[in-house]
């Protein structure tokens, strides 16, 4: 079973929080107490022996949560030092600050304040949360650099950091964090923990978010009924955002179960034959184009397309004779030949781009796209597309574009520029925004690759897959395999967004199971095990 969780933007989160408080059934103070209790609880779970903690409290409600954490850890026997900003917080945070002030002191949240005093076992970052309106500057930026950065010896200044809702300075909508050191290598560090409230936000999963957050825990603070009502009543369901992952076990987050994988394993066998599992056509390139299309074709076969035909031009056909023998091969020299082949309506999915050659891809796309076939466009097909507005205009809802960052920039230069721009205000424009805008613009599913893959459909639905734990997947040919897997799923009858999502997940999981040392050829061989585990 494929599972995931709903992802909310910060604006949606604020709307839900307000709706909950407006209902009169819960107060802001109660929500803050629950939030602080969740953080303190996870600290105690991870470090059961009470030690020394420094809690850094900002000017808003995130700071308010920090004062709750301080109080609860003090009650549990921890030695607590609190540094706070001097601003007048809102009423709930002011109340929590006051309750702490009855127990202990509050030092100034300054660099000197942070450096003075004994070293703590744990630092709690409650400076900014969803209320961050712009990148932090000045002294607060220096404090954040110290919390999340390394010293000259490479060791972290603050060895164990627990972020309340998010690492302060991270834009929770985009994963951008211009004021923070990138924290490379901290992913999964046992010393880095983020306790987010209610739902993950995009910024926890994309951009610098995963590196800065470390382990992500999503704590339920009792907002589920308002979340359901709020999102449903605004008709937001069709554009909801989901994260898919087999690996992050987010204990308290609401799980979404996609029943997608059922259809791969279980069939009413009596009525099935190979053609009911689809026929995928992989359009390969001329002589000496390498093995890219072969990687795609093998993957399409492994994922369960009933038949897969690999189609290079006649003069390259001998180069494509290597196993697997289950692959069919036929020469397709040009657009006319392709037109003839596509008279066979049983060919229901195509993969074009890997090792295809740009000119050949352009010529074949001109025939392929008007047929409305499920089509994955990768590599050379994306370059061909970026050079020909006519082809771009011929894209349709059964197309899936699978660009990496460079290909995306060639296809949608204005959107790539917006993603790259240094933000001056939050929410910053993100990779997710760009993929969504691109999908709406071209009318096809856009799967923008990277350690964080975002998949967007033209109707606004989007999925995020965060794979920062498998850097060895960045290997030559891995993208060709992904294109083949998705093509196979299209042949099997999956809708484009589902085929792209499930394909991304299976591809990553294959890499995860294999481990370091992976080459692209290994991915397809891991697919059967991934399917067994998902079933
Ligand atoms: N979701 C939930 O259900 C619940 C959420 N809760 C918690 O509330 C948090 C959100 O709280 P929040 O809205 O008060 O915002 P928060 O992040 O504390 O910061 C706002 C303050 O920062 C300031 N400020 C902003 N940018 C700045 C900058 N660059 N540099 C300097 N200052 C800057 C800004 O001032 P201004 O922009 O007006 O200058 C304002 O004073 C949320 O993350 C969670 O922890 C729980 O308590 C309860 C349940
Ligand atoms: N750092 C990384 N961690 C995990 N996965 C990655 C990383 N970088 C790239 N990937 C994934 O590896 C694959 C690489 O695809 P692509 O860039 O098209 O490579 P190629 O053209 O060599 O096949 C994509 O699925 C992408 O999402
Ligand atoms: K924080």
Compile the SSE list and pairings:
Blueprint: E1 2-7, H1 10-22, H2 28-46, E2 52-57, H3 61-75, E3 79-84, H4 91-101, E4 107-108, H5 111-115, E5 122-126, H6 138-148, E6 161-164, E7 192-197, H7 202-205, H8 209-213, E8 215-219, H9 224-233, E9 241-244, E10 255-258, H10 262-265, E11 279-283, H11 292-303, E12 307-311, E13 328-329, H12 335-341, E14 347-352, H13 358-368, E15 374-377, H14 379-387, H15 389-393, E16 399-401, H16 405-411, H17 413-420, H18 431-442, E17 445-448, E18 452-456, E19 462-466, H19 478-491, H20 496-514, H21 520-534
Helix pairs in contact: 1-9, 2-3, 3-4, 11-19, 11-21, 12-13, 13-14, 14-16, 16-17, 17-18, 19-20, 19-21, 20-21
What does this structure look like?
It is a single chain. With 535 residues, the protein is of the alpha/beta class. It folds into two domains: 2-253, 3-Layer(aba) Sandwich (Rossmann fold), CATH 3.40.50; 269-534, 3-Layer(aba) Sandwich (UDP-N-acetylmuramoyl-L-alanine:D-glutamate ligase), CATH 3.40.1190.20. It contains 21 helices and 19 strands. The protein has helices at 10-22, 28-46, 61-75, 91-101, 111-115, 138-148, 202-205, 209-213, 224-233, 262-265, 292-303, 335-341, 358-368, 379-387, 389-393, 405-411, 413-420, 431-442, 478-491, 496-514, 520-534; strands at 2-7, 52-57, 79-84, 107-108, 122-126, 161-164, 192-197, 215-219, 241-244, 255-258, 279-283, 307-311, 328-329, 347-352, 374-377, 399-401, 445-448, 452-456, 462-466. The strands form two sheets. It has a twelve-stranded mixed β-sheet, sandwiched between helices. Strands 4-3-2-5-6-7-8 form a seven-stranded parallel β-sheet. α2 packs across α3 (61-75) and α11 runs parallel beside α21 (520-534). It is elongated and about 85 Å long. The structure holds ligand NPW, adenosine-5'-diphosphate and potassium ion. Residues 13, 17, 31-32, 35, 58-65, 128-136, 140, 164-165, 197-198, 221, 223 line the site of ligand NPW. Adenosine-5'-diphosphate (ADP) binds at residues 404, 449-451, 453, 467, 470-471, 473-474, 476-480, 482, 507. Keywords: ATP-binding, Isomerase, Lyase, Metal-binding, Multifunctional enzyme, NAD, NADP, Nucleotide-binding, Potassium. Residues 257-534 form the YjeF C-terminal domain.
């Amino acid at each position: 079973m494929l599972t995931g969780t709903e992802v909310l933007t910060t604006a949606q989160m604020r709307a839900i929080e307000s709706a909950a408080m407006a209902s009169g059934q819960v107060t802001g103070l109660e929500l803050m107490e629950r939030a602080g209790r969740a953080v303190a609880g996870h600290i105690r779970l991870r470090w059961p022996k009470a030690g020394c903690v420094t809690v850094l409290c900002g000017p808003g409600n995130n700071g308010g949560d920090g004062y709750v954490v301080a109080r609860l850890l003090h009650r549990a026997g921890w030695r607590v030092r609190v540094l706070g900003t001097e601003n007048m917080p809102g009423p709930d945070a002011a109340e929590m600050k006051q309750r702490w002030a009855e127990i202990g002191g509050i030092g100034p949240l300054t660099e000197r304040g942070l450096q003075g005093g004994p070293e703590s076992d744990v630092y709690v970052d409650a400076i900014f949360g969803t209320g961050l309106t712009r990148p932090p500057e000045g002294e607060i930026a220096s404090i954040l650099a110290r919390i999340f950065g390394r010293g000259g010896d490479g060791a972290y200044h603050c060895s164990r950091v627990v972020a309340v809702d998010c690492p302060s300075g991270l834009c929770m909508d985009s994963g951008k964090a211009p004021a923070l050191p990138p924290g490379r290598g901290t992913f999964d560090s046992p010393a880095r923990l983020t306790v987010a409230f209610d739902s993950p936000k995009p910024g926890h999963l994309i951009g610098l978010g995963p590196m800065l957050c470390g382990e992500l825990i999503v704590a339920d603070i009792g907002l589920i009924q308002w979340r359901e009502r709020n999102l449903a009543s605004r008709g937001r369901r069709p554009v909801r955002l989901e994260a898919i992952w087999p690996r992050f076990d987010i204990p308290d987050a609401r799980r979404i179960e996609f029943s997608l994988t059922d259809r791969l394993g279980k069939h009413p066998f009596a009525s099935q034959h190979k053609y009911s599992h689809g026929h995928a056509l992989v359009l390969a390139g001329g002589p000496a184009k390498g093995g890219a299309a072969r990687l795609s074709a093998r993957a399409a076969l492994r994922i369960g397309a009933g038949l897969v035909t690999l189609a290079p031009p006649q003069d390259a056909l001998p180069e494509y004779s290597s196993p697997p023998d289950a692959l069919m091969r036929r020469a397709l020299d040009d657009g006319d030949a392709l037109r003839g082949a596509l008279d066979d309506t049983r060919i229901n999915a195509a993969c074009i781009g890997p090792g295809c050659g740009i000119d050949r891809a352009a010529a074949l796309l001109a025939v392929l796209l008007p047929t409305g076939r499920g089509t994955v466009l990768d590599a050379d097909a994306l370059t061909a597309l970026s050079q020909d507005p006519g082809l771009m205009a011929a894209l349709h809802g059964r197309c899936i574009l699978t660009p990496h960052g460079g290909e995306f920039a060639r296809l949608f230069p204005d959107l790539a520029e917006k993603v790259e721009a240094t933000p001056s205000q939050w929410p910053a424009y993100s990779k997710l925004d760009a993929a969504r805008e691109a999908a709406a613009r071209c009318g096809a599913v856009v799967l923008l690759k990277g350690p964080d893959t975002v998949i967007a459909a033209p109707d606004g639905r989007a999925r995020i897959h965060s794979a920062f734990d498998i850097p060895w997947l960045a290997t030559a040919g891995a993208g060709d395999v992904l294109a083949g897997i998705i093509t196979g799923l299209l042949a099997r009858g999956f809708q484009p967004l589902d085929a792209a999502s499930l394909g991304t997940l299976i591809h990553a999981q294959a890499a995860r199971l294999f481990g370091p040392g992976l080459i692209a050829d290994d991915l397809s061989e891991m697919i059967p095990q991934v399917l067994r585990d998902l079933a």
